[in-house]
Design goal:
- InterPro entries: GerMN (IPR019606).
- This is GerMN domain-containing protein.
- By secondary structure, the chain is of the alpha+beta class.
- The chain has a domain of 111 residues: GMP Synthetase, Chain A, domain 3 (2-Layer Sandwich).
- Helices cover 40% and strands 20% of the residues.
- The strands form 2 sheets. Strands 3-4-5 form a 3-stranded mixed sheet, covered by helices on one side.
- Strand 3 and strand 4 form a beta hairpin.
Length: 184
Amino acid sequence: MKKTLSIVICSITIFSMVGLTGCKNKDTISSGDKEKQIALSKEKENALDLNIYFGSSNNSTDLSKEQRVIKKDELLGETIINEIIKGPGVKSNLNPVLPKDTKLLSFSIKDNTAYVNFSKEANISMNAYKEETCLKSIIFSLTELPSIQKVKIFIDNKDTNIWGNNFNLTSPLGKDTISNTKKK
């Protein structure tokens, strides 16, 4: 009886130790997984996962999907620029800053700088006041996004001889640097 009781107590002790040790390791693994999940969720907060469908072959109507990840701020930045191109509302007393036939060729954000490339239709002659208004409109609107502090503007992939050539646009501009780039 004593021997059986000793075996039962030893067994319970061993199983308890193994069980507690197993729980400790599981908690550590869970914590590590939680940290990874938190990091991934923060990364995904600024991105959209989209499925885009394309034709699978030339002779069928079958579709196949391709997964794309799009950064939300880049999508918002493109929308902001397209709204600037579209101009103020019909009932507004405000003035457009870009010609209506302007197109956005490309938009990207890297290192807190937005890179905006307009079509050649945007390159109209502007006096210094109109050019400054146009620059401020673009820069002030885009820097509303937390990921953008400066803006680099191109027209048809060029950054010189743009608009009235009243400002040096060869470097990215921020809200506080527009006035400093005015050519004398």
